[in-house]
């Protein structure tokens, strides 16, 4: 059995079982109510006949007159549907007169007669003869104010019993029939209802076999699964985009690592071929430089790949204004060697933010160093600190050639480069700076300007 048939079978079985249970509960309640109503009706009928008999013999004073009186009114009392036998007893329990349907014999009822003599109006449900159900009632008859006779009426309950037996048969036979009908109906309805989900799963199975590049077929308009299919397609698109970036990242990283390895191998081969110590020393110095470059590259890659745990552990409040002043002084020292001017604008007083100070220093210096590398001699770089609502904003702007339009979408991607090669080195500085800023709850963004390039790093203030 397929998974879908199994699901339909289980749901249909549960539904039919629930319907049968509810139906049986309602049926049992109805059965109980019908039994109570029929019992009440039979009781009232028996008591009514006993009272009617009592009225007939109320003025009779002797046993001889009693049967004559009964014979005189027999046609008025019998036959009556459901009435089996009418009996009159003396107070000591002797039967002195009766009217009965053919074949209905006397049955002693000493307990009922005793209760009637005590002033009660007893009723009893019994099965007599060939399991014939009946109900009988006894009533005390008074002559004036003195007790004189005991009137007993016996009423047939066969019709009530047949009605109850019929209802029991309907319940016992109807429950399986209803269960079967409900199961068949629910199985068919569920087949129609689950078809879109079945098709969606089949599409997903085909997509898993074929790999990325495929999309789920969206159900018809109005289907509840349409939104799910659209969301899954969006997730697939994002996953495909992420996988593409990872592939490009891996390719770029392998290229960046392979190039210095190739150069180092060449330098080492040169040092091995020649006997000149000066040449060998120069080759070793070149290899050391390449190793430093590779170390910085690997550290940057590890920083990009690392999670947020270390950043969160190192987070603490610090004065961003003091940090910007320190970076400004370091930038001035570097700028003097390149004939560049560095301007720093920081408000008076501390600007306290939350984060890892060492990492924020690294992020800002990456931005500043990137700016210093593209400013021609005589130009300058400015660092300014301001507040934007509940965030501190550090803007780094240079007087360089600006960012080419083709590079703007790739500025913060690892190894991102435009057609004009704006990014220096490995292209990881800005990507790493944005990663650090976002780990601290802030961000790093490119700010369009008429001249040069500008980047703004924002951090939440404490």
Short characterization:
This protein has 462 residues and is α+β, with helices and mostly antiparallel strands. Helix content is 56%, strand content 18%.
Structure description:
The protein has 462 residues and is an alpha+beta fold. The chain folds into three domains: 3-163, PAS domain (Beta-Lactamase, 2-Layer Sandwich); 225-305, Helix Hairpins, CATH 1.10.287; 314-460, 2-Layer Sandwich (Heat Shock Protein 90). Helices cover 56% and strands 18% of the residues. The chain has eleven helices and twelve strands. The protein has helices at 3-57, 63-72, 74-77, 110-117, 158-210, 225-273, 277-305, 309-314, 320-337, 357-372, 429-439; strands at 83-90, 95-100, 123-128, 132-143, 146-156, 316-319, 341-345, 352-355, 380-388, 391-398, 443-447, 454-460. The chain has a five-stranded antiparallel beta sheet. Strands 7-9-10-12-11 form a five-stranded mixed beta sheet. It is rod-shaped, with a radius of gyration of 52 Å.
Query: What name is given to the CATH topology of the largest domain?
Result: Beta-Lactamase
Shape: rod-shaped
Instruction: For the largest sheet, list the strands in their spatial order.
Output: 2-1-5-4-3
Q: Mind telling me the CATH superfamily name of the largest domain?
A: PAS domain
Low-pLDDT ranges: 418-425
What's the pLDDT, averaged over the residues? 82
Output the structural class. alpha+beta
